[in-house]
Amino acid sequence: MTGELQTNRETVKFIYQIRTQSEQQYWKKLDHMVQAKLEVKKVEPIARPRNPGEFNYAKYLIKQNIYYQAEITEFKNLLEYHPQSFKGKINVLRIHIIKYLAQLPKWLRIHAQSLIVGYTAPTDKDFLKILSVLGVIHLFSLSGLHVLLILTLIRKLTSFLKIPLELIDMLMLFLLPSYGILVGSKSGIWRAVVLAMVGIVFKKLGWSLSSLDIFSVTLLICLFVDPMAITTMGGQLSFLLAFAIMYLYKHTKFIWATLKMNLVSLPIICFYTYQLNWLTLLINLIFIPLFTYVILPLTFISALSVNLKIWNNINNLFEIMYRILDYFSSNVQFILVTGKLAVLSVVLLVIISIFYIESKSIFNKYLYQYLIIFVGCVVFNKFPLSGSVNIIDVGQGDSILVTTPLIRKTFLIDTAGKLKFMTKPWAKRNGGNQVEHSTIPFLKSQGISKIDKLFLSHKDVDHIGNLEILLNKFPVKQVNFGIGLDQNLRIQKVIRAHPEIEFRSRRQGDVIKTGFINWQVLWPKVKGKGENSDSLTLLAQIKNKKWLFTGDLDIPSEQKILKDYQFKVDYLKLGHHGSKTATGDELLEKTQPQLGLISSGVNNRYGHPNRETLQRLENHHVKYLNTADYGMISWYYDFFDNREKITTFLKGDSFENSRIKK
User: What's one Pfam family here (predicted)?
Assistant: First the structure.
């Protein structure tokens, strides 16, 4: 269980391991605030991302003034808490509304909770992913649009009831900030709330200001109260689109206004998500009227009476609609992976898009300038001038990305995975996985839209546990594995499930030539069962350097390879995460690597890398880097010359020999 604690001094994120099913039910049914004494195991800063492209959860919380996470071992003296502050009472009301709306069928519940109180349940994350990929998530994220619609409805209703406008304006000065607190203080809502309040106050003072003046005052107030709001994707889109709307919908047809709005938001979306959906414009043209005239009214009507049977029939229609949207969001044919755009490019694109929305014509120099810069950024990301080897930090596991320059080829060695321990049914939860959390975001941030060859070293979960997830979530052209691994029942199931992918078994002596890189298979020699001793071992010639990747190969198997081959390497990926059962003295003596790379988890339960292994490295004068210390480790080589460099994600860009651990 996770949540937030309010101490006397600050807000702290907490995690807590629920012990029994009855305790789980207690927390699920809780519909009020509680106070308690806590036993805390440790308090530490929020963990930073360890790979490029990962969601920066620490940065996200810092923007909410949350800096620490506490691990709680026990709640003591739990008592119902009745807050006395106005904000506290509004928060209690929010809890009751969320519980009340939970009685609706699935899709109506999601609509009502997100559009009325700004709440999205953890189980609804897949729904948000669909909307995000299709570019319509802004419709279901409470924003100024919804405040504007609510204000319009209130004004029309009060006009019909002959209630004085002056009285309504005074009530709005109280109700608007109350609603802002109720929905969780989202930046988009507060921008709209402040905008409406500024307009009311200026009207009362008799000041005649333009919409741009009111917007500017609102922006200054919002940034004074929360300077970090403008640093988030939501905050940037909220202010930018609000600014664009002032110009567009007064003198532009809906279809062209939608096009221009998409061009305004596109650089921001690509900067944070690294992709766009070709159907975004078309879906917006269809979905915005559907949302405005069908979904939104039904949401408010259903919230008034949650138990009507008709809601089940309407929910079935929404089920069909979202299945269709899910197809379009997950089909890679409709997705363009752009890579992460440079900050300067994003700024230029936003500035040009502002000039574009002010222009009356559709096809003009601003549109052409915009397209040239955007296409140039995408081409630069997809056809880089350098290749790389990246030891992805997946914790206690292996996943290595190798790329070539220019017409880029991509190779992934292993997918990582987590060991699953036996848990009771009530204690099972949808935990994250390294592929969706680390690997795919990193690939997309680099502009990579497919994997040309995937190598599976052996059957262990920490190496191929995420195989099915990767194949379902990301295009892979060919899968390679050591001879005999295809007899594994799990691998057979994967092969049957993906007839569109080529599966190849490899054995000692095979050579895979792929442009800039030659892969030589050193092991296995005979058919095995996918054990550590059967690990697919690859010697790669990359530009003018040699790399050796050994999976979890043990020392006896290393010695057998050295009887068949004589070679030296520049870089060695240590076997079995630095275990003492791998990377023996004979391998180090005969291959003479300059640098060893280790992939292991921080404070892992196995004690990897083992001290005995590190002593062997020292004895043979081999320096090393470990992902547990440095996060992702990357080696880059240039296409035009022999320049190369090693970078780490956590501790700086370029490493000199003196800075690498001995």
Answer: Competence
